[in-house]
């Protein structure tokens, strides 16, 4: 049977009665180590060229990484050459430690030190697998045999370093496949390595705990890390690092809980490239801290550059929903989200702490724009449509028109099946509400107020179709409505009416929106004009025109009473 869960065994939780990490809160960023150039690189279909490595290295330095694993120099010529290039061309800033990985094998350790000749400072990272499956099936060794590989490797690392005393050396040991290793055995091997390196005597040592394969829920990893912190010797003299992978999709969570459990340092890659489902994503974890008001100690403000470089070096594109970096992560299509974002953003004042529904961080912090936040498709509502018109065209619609117009947009989205861009929304609005039919185009008006109200004299249309209308009412709209009723023989009732002064950036200064019942038939229109009265009267004529059409204008124009009125 192909799909049979009984083939698998559940992970064993850590039996712990002194669990403290769940009560911890991360208050500062861990020390970061970027392993893009090693773990990320070894997972690529096409490993990076020296030029790509250089580009990635420069980006990592620019972002503020102080520890960068640059490769496995004993494994391949490009890795060796890149290490030499950085050293010989003096490309390593004084506050940056390069780190190199090697298996605990004499010839590889020797070659690793060859690659490091002339370095000012470096972290030599040696590893061997300690898990039961690796012991039993890969190495065919018992615990003592595996511990010996680690200890011999540690000795060689120390001896080679001693031959180059001018270099500021840091030693790092990883019990690779730590998550599949019994905790007491992991501690035994770590202690044995530290007995060689003697961090208590001033040697800088990093003990890196890898979730080489993520095998359990992140709380189990946190338990493992806390247990190791509590049970190894030399704890106060070593830096505890974690290196999580994403097999279960929880690499970031595991690293976060591990920091709560006592880890000082976190290894990972930008955007999480790495073996299988990837390494812990540094961008996500650092931005998670940032979104909590904690300085991530990395400058990720140029997110577009980060994704560009990562994509160019890994030849892997960024998922549009990648946390913080994806194209769609600051976009809302759904109506209720758009409505909430629009309301929160409109209340927000510069300098306020960030408190916007559906947007965990301010898109502008990562070089993104609010323009991208609201995009319209068939899932959108009136709030989103109104937001787009306001944002891009300075057009504010009254609520009743938002409701009416968004239905038209929705219909268009359903027909077209995808996204409706801002230009199309504006065109729809123009066609539906702003378009002026020539015979109903306002030419001039004269409003005269006397004791009984307002007398309106208006002229619409052009040439042969010009009409002069006159009417009386309590206000301008009522007077002009009366004029139209008289001229066209229709009955008008104004159901809603709003006018807005427009801000800078448009040729028009005013927008008027009106909804009428013409002979009982509902119709709406809007108009943009230099002044609010012109906008209002034009909106009124346009709304009437939508029901009576051009023929009525022609009839009215032919009537001498009307023309002379
Ligand atoms: C979890 C991780 O990411 S670990 C890092 C893994 N990265 C890589 O492997 C990428 C670079 N690696 C390579 O290019 C190659 O593996 C090399 C050049 C380092 C070594 O190549 P080879 O000498 O051909 O050996 P190979 O890769 O097959 O390794 C297997 C041998 O190394 C031994 N070995 C593997 N890891 C270790 C280790 N950490 N310490 C000591 N010995 C080890 C194995 O027991 C095996 O020994 P055997 O040949 O006696 O059975
Ligand atoms: C070499 C080690 C740290 C590693 O990459 C892993 O275990 O995943
Ligand atoms: Mg790894």
TrEMBL record:
Protein name: 2-isopropylmalate synthase
Residue ranges of domain Pyruvate carboxyltransferase in the record: 30-304
Residues that, per the record, bind Mg(2+): 39, 243, 245, 279
Cofactor(s) this protein cannot do without: Mg(2+)
Keyword Transcription regulation belongs to the record: no
Keyword Magnesium among record annotations: yes
Entry-linked NCBIfam families: leuA_yeast, PRK03739.1
GO CC terms in record: cytoplasm
Species whose genome carries this gene: Marinobacter profundi
């Amino acid at each position: 049977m192909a799909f049979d869960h009984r083939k698998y065994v559940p992970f064993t939780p850590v039996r712990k009665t002194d669990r403290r990490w769940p009560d911890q809160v991360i208050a500062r960023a861990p020390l970061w180590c970027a392993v893009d150039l090693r773990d990320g690189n070894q997972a690529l279909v096409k490993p990076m060229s020296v030029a790509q490595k250089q580009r990635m290295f420069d980006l990592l330095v620019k972002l503020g990484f102080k520890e960068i694993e640059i490769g496995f120099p004993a494994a391949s010529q490009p890795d060796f050459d890149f290490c030499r290039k950085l050293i010989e061309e003096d490309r390593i800033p004084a506050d940056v430690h390069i780190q190199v990985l090697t298996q605990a094998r004499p010839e590889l350790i020797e070659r690793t030190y060859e690659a490091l000749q002339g370095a000012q400072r470096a972290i030599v990272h040696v590893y061997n697998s300690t898990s039961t499956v690796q012991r039993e099936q890969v190495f065919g060794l018992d615990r003592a045999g595996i511990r010996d590989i680690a200890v011999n490797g540690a000795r060689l690392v120390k001896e080679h370093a001693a031959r180059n005393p001018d270099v500021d050396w840091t030693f790092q040991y990883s019990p690779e496949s730590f998550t599949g290793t019994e905790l007491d055995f992991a501690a035994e091997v770590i202690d044995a390595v530290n007995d060689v390196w003697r961090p208590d005597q001033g040697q800088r040592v990093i003990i890196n705990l890898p979730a080489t394969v993520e095998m359990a829920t992140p709380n189990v990893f946190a338990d493992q890390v806390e247990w190791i912190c509590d049970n190894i010797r030399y704890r106060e003299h070593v830096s505890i690092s974690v290196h999580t992978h994403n097999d279960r999709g929880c690499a970031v969570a595991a690293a976060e809980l591990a920091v709560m459990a006592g880890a000082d340092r976190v290894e990972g890659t930008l955007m999480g490239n790495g073996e299988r489902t990837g390494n812990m994503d540094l961008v996500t974890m650092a931005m998670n801290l940032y979104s909590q008001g904690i300085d991530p100690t990395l400058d990720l403000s140029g997110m577009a550059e980060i994704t560009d470089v990562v994509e160019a070096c890994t030849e892997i594109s960024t998922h549009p929903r990648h946390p913080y970096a994806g194209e769609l992560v600051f976009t809302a299509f759904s109506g209720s989200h758009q409505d909430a974002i629009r309301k929160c953003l409109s209340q927000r004042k510069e300098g306020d702490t960030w408190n916007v529904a559906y947007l965990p961080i301010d898109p502008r912090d990562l070089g993104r724009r609010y323009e991208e936040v609201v995009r319209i498709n068939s899932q959108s509502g009136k709030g989103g449509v109104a937001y787009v018109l306001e944002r891009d065209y300075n057009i504010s619609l009254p609520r009743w028109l938002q409701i009416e117009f968004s239905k038209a947009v929705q219909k268009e989205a359903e027909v077209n099946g995808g996204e409706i861009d801002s230009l199309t929304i504006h065109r729809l609005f123009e066609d539906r509400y702003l378009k002026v039919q020539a015979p109903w185009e306002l030419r001039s008006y004269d409003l005269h107020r006397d004791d009984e109200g307002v007398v309106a004299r208006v002229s619409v249309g052009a040439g042969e179709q010009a009409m002069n209308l006159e009417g009386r009412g309590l206000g301008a709209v009522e007077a002009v409505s009366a004029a139209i009723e008289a001229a066209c023989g229709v009955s008008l009732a104004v159901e809603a009416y709003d006018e807005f002064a427009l801000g800078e950036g448009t040729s028009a200064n005013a927008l008027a929106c009106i909804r009428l019942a013409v002979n009982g038939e509902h119709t709406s229109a809007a108009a943009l004009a230099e002044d609010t009265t012109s906008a209002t009267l034009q909106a009124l004529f346009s709304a009437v025109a939508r029901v009576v059409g051009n023929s009525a204008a022609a009839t009215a124009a032919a009537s001498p009473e009307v023309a002379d009125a």
